[in-house]
UniProtKB/TrEMBL annotation:
<dbReference type="InterPro" id="IPR050463">
    <property type="entry name" value="Gfo/Idh/MocA_oxidrdct_glycsds"/>
</dbReference>
<dbReference type="InterPro" id="IPR000683">
    <property type="entry name" value="Gfo/Idh/MocA-like_OxRdtase_N"/>
</dbReference>
<dbReference type="InterPro" id="IPR036291">
    <property type="entry name" value="NAD(P)-bd_dom_sf"/>
</dbReference>
<keyword id="KW-0560">Oxidoreductase</keyword>
<dbReference type="Pfam" id="PF01408">
    <property type="entry name" value="GFO_IDH_MocA"/>
</dbReference>
<dbReference type="GO" id="GO:0016491">
    <property type="term" value="F:oxidoreductase activity"/>
</dbReference>
<feature type="domain" description="GFO/IDH/MocA-like oxidoreductase">
    <location>
        <begin position="130"/>
        <end position="251"/>
    </location>
</feature>
<dbReference type="GO" id="GO:0000166">
    <property type="term" value="F:nucleotide binding"/>
</dbReference>
<protein>
    <submittedName>
        <fullName>Fructose reductase</fullName>
    </submittedName>
</protein>
<dbReference type="InterPro" id="IPR055170">
    <property type="entry name" value="GFO_IDH_MocA-like_dom"/>
</dbReference>
<feature type="domain" description="Gfo/Idh/MocA-like oxidoreductase N-terminal">
    <location>
        <begin position="5"/>
        <end position="122"/>
    </location>
</feature>
<dbReference type="Pfam" id="PF22725">
    <property type="entry name" value="GFO_IDH_MocA_C3"/>
</dbReference>
């Protein structure tokens, strides 16, 4: 039987409060400590969420726990993962893993050298909708996949409209916040790797400075499949979706790019239309359960550190493409390079 974990929260975040604390406890784990750079915030957060230890010291937190969940701003992930790995703690880190592919690779290598599990918290690959689509494609139900489309344009709620819109040094912008999820979900559903991307970004007035609040683009995969993506912080009335179109059929996922276990998938072929059966398990609970099992020697996290490198490589290439107006190659092992489109 898997041993429950004592967790520490690095970052007194909204996502931890709304999703991760309950997910950890649902798997039998305990949240032993929370760290914030603001002592009052750490103390208040700990009391409100039944966490016995609150601190501003990462070293103090690491002494209390077996595993950490990192949900600080993006520029802090690299150092916090390296320090946690050196302390021998297993790590579930929010996306993007870092601000550069090189930093993310260093984080993965450090965790491997320390013998600790590193997972990337790409929750969408835990959704029943996307797992049903992956299984249908693997079973050949739509023939050879040719095209995919991701609609992930949403409205960023007021309580999250902070650094994501104003702080480039912290990894602000819709590409590092949402396009990374598209990239990971596409890789997972298609069981295929991306090779190049072309993208355009938009600043429609919600963000400040050079931070983008909308993006559109296309990704070419190794198989030749082309995938469109549309991401935004600014669209209050759009619906999310994920589609894959093949030689023998189409999969049409609706309301599925979300944190909740909702949405449907329609399979359309020459035989007609069929709604696929969907597992409604909480996405974060499934992710924490997979991570806990990996710590106990049973398989891998739902999204590994390598998966996090791939999604960051796509996002970095998309930003480079938008900057240079060129098709940009995606390489998770080296620095990105571009070519004339």
């Amino acid at each position: 039987m898997s041993r429950p974990l004592r967790w520490g929260l690095i970052g007194a975040s909204t996502i931890a409060r709304e999703w991760m604390i309950d997910a950890i406890r649902s798997t039998g784990g305990t949240v032993a400590s929370v760290m914030s750079s603001d002592r009052d915030r750490a103390t208040t957060y700990g009391k409100a969420n039944g966490i016995p230890h609150a601190t501003t010291s990462l070293d103090a937190l690491l002494e209390e726990v077996d595993a950490v969940y990192i949900s600080t701003t993006n520029e802090l992930h690299h150092d916090q993962v390296l320090r946690s790995a050196r302390a021998g703690r297993h790590i579930l880190c929010e996306k993007p893993l870092a601000l550069t592919v090189g930093e993310a690779r260093e984080m993965v290598d450090a965790c491997r050298a320390a013998g600790v599990v590193l997972g990337t918290n790409h929750h969408l690959r835990n959704a029943g909708t996307h797992r049903a689509m992956r299984e249908a494609i693997a079973a050949g139900r739509i023939g050879r996949p040719l095209f995919a489309r991701v609609f992930h344009a949403v409205y960023l709620p007021a309580h999250l409209q902070g650094w994501r819109l104003t702080s480039p040094n912290a990894g602000a912008g819709v590409v590092l916040d949402i396009t990374v999820h598209d990239a990971d979900t596409l890789r997972f559903v298609l069981a295929d790797d991306p090779v190049e991307v072309t993208a355009l970004t938009q600043s429609a007035g919600m963000s400040q400075g050079n931070v983008e609040d909308g993006a559109m683009g296309a990704i070419r995969f190794k198989s030749g499949l082309l995938a469109q993506f549309h991401d935004a912080f600014t669209t209050a009335y759009a619906k999310t979706g994920f589609e894959v179109h093949g030689t023998d059929g189409s999969l049409i996922g609706t309301n599925c790019m979300t944190q909740k276990p909702v949405g449907d998938v329609l399979l359309r072929t020459a035989a007609g239309e069929e709604l696929l059966s969907i597992d409604r398990t909480n996405l974060y609970e499934r992710g924490v359960a997979r991570f806990t099992a990996a710590v106990n020697g049973e398989g891998e996290p739902a999204a590994t550190g390598e998966d996090g490198i791939w999604s960051l490589a796509v996002a970095a290439a998309a930003l480079e493409s938008a900057k240079t107006s060129r098709v940009t190659e995606i390489d998770p092992f080296q620095s990105i390079s571009s070519k004339v489109s």
